[in-house]
Amino acid sequence: MTTVKPSGECGNCLSKPPPWQQFYRLGEYDFPLRQLVHQLKFSGKFWLAEPLGRLLARQIVHPAPAVIPVPLHPLRRFSRSFNQSTLLARAIARETESRCLPNALRRTRHTQTQRHLSKRDRKKNLNQAFILKAKRLPEHVAIVDDVVTTGSTVAELTHLLLRSGVKQVDIYCICFTPPRQ
Q1: Environment class of residue 159 by beta-carbon count within 10 Å: exposed (0-12), middle (13-18) or buried (19+)?
Q2: Taking the model in full, what pTM does it have?
Q3: 145 vs 158: CA distance, rounded Å
Q4: What is the pLDDT of residue 4?
């Protein structure tokens, strides 16, 4: 597993800083994490969220007092029968003694899956796809997702949270796809 580095340490992040403060992950979207995430997400092995969440939580130096999973649209949640980000967020919250706020955000549109879209198309696909449901949030929160590819989803959610008065947003994910060089 790779060590955790603040988001400001990568070359792309230095040239164009992301809207979040810290980015915690277990590693890159590669073996074995890729296979574990696929089993969790597409093969219904929801029990994998607990050990993956615990492993990730142990990497977090300054945990946010509240963790917020990336919401799924109700149709996608129904077809999958669970939200893998919520399961991960609950495991992380238990381990870090944070609150899990699974209903703080809502996906308002059933967007097409981001998997095969370009970065530009991902951003367009997510435009106005989320709303904030929580009335009050702590100043420091973390967004939990299974995989961060281009960062479009977590950036959209980070901007929404910052506009609502949150001061610091961190990202917790199992794995990420590093930018192409």
Answers
A1: middle
A2: 0.87
A3: 12
A4: 46
